[in-house]
Amino acid sequence: MAEASITLRVRYAETDRMGVAYYGNYFTWFEVGRVELLRQLGFRYRDMEEQENSYIVVAEARCHYRRPARFDDLLRIVTRVVESRSRSIRFAYEIYNEETGELLATGETTHVICDANGRPRVLPEKYRKYFPLTNTSAPDARR
To answer: What's the pLDDT at 138?
Structure first.
């Protein structure tokens, strides 16, 4: 399946007084990775919304925190598609400290394809080549 990697630096505003990244930011970083994956696949998510009235709405999200990310750490976010169906897509994420190689967090999000009114719909034909229908399990997040 498709995979992309992007790096970003933990900003001061994303941390607490001890310099540890706030837990909710991991979901923002997952989104950064997901949007970059779509771009690397060959399309902009914004175009999917504007041209096809198709939105990938988060239906479920989880994160397993292993080690803290800290202010000024350079992070590498690896994102992959692990499952796609006619009306849903599941992404998996790994966040690494780029400088040490240490795995900081893993996670998954499941998305339902919806129209602008929030009604589920089938993924438009022109995007199916990017998300071939599968029914595979996510890679073992404990590796």
So the answer is: 46
- C-alpha to C-alpha distance for 53 and 88, rounded to whole angstroms: 15
Residue-wise pLDDT tens digits, 5-62? 999 999 999 999 999 999 999 999 999 999 999 999 999 999 999 999 999 999 999 9
Per the structure, the count of domains in the chain is 1
What range defines the domain where residue 28 resides? 3-128
Q: What is the mean pLDDT of residues 67-74?
A: 98
* Residue 10's CATH number: 3.10.129.10
Does a structural domain hold residue 98? yes
